[in-house]
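Input record (one chain):
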Amino acid sequence: MAKTVMMKNNENGVLRKGFYGFSWTYLFFGWFVPLIRGELGVAVLHFFLAIFSCGIAQLIFCFLYNKQFTQRLLEKGYRFADRPEVNSAAAVAIGVDLSVNAAPA
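The corresponding structure, as predicted from the sequence alone:
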């Protein structure tokens, strides 16, 4: 089951939800999920992979997509900005160092 963690971009103050864990949404809706989350390039890539793999890629990506989405948010400058216990659980699940990726108070 997917879990959410609030993330904040310290440069512009924008808050977004990051996700980690299994994505039921991706399992049912496939490449529409990255499209709705504003990742056009990822959506196109996943669309073609789903077509060429006859849907097998969709079964694989539902385990990977939320973690990859949150990692891309971290690369764009977002930092964990949720409660400390949620931040630490997300950092462990994603495999990042919390001391580097936590928003300053």
